[in-house]
Specification:
Length: about 100
C-alpha cells in the first residue's frame, strides 16, 4: 500500500500542536514529529496511507488556522508516494519514539 507524507508548517507552536492533535484524531496516521524550522516556525510531519493523510491534513490545516493564539499555517504539502531516495535523505522515517504508535495498513 502506498504511504504518503504530510507536512504542515505553522507560525507559532500552539498552532503546530493543534494541527498535530487534529491530524492524529482525524486519520489513521503516525505523527513523526513537530520540529523547529526558523524564527517561530515549526513543522508537523505525519505518515500513513494516502487517503488517511489527506483527511488528516485537512483537519490539521483547519485546527492550526483556528488556533486561538494567533497561529497560522504558512505552508503545507503532501507527498502521495514517497520514494526510497527521498526517505533515505530526509528525516521522514519512523523513529524509535514514533514506532509504538505506528499505524499499519
Amino acid at each position: 500500500m502506498p504511504m504518503a507524507v504530510g507536512v504542515i508548517e505553522t507560525h507559532g507552536y500552539p498552532a503546530s500542536l493543534a494541527a498535530a492533535d487534529a491530524m492524529v484524531k482525524a486519520g489513521r496516521v503516525t505523527l513523526l514529529g513537530i520540529n523547529q524550522a526558523d524564527s517561530g516556525h515549526q513543522f508537523v510531519v505525519i505518515r500513513g496511507q494516502n487517503g488517511e493523510v489527506k483527511r488528516a491534513m485537512e483537519a490539521g490545516l483547519a485546527a492550526a488556522n483556528d488556533s486561538p493564539c494567533n497561529g497560522e499555517v504558512t505552508s503545507h504539502y503532501i507527498v502521495p508516494h514517497l520514494t526510497e531516495n527521498v526517505e533515505s535523505v530526509l528525516p521522514l522515517h519512523f523513529t524509535d519514539a514514533a514506532e509504538p504508535f505506528r499505524v499499519t495498513p
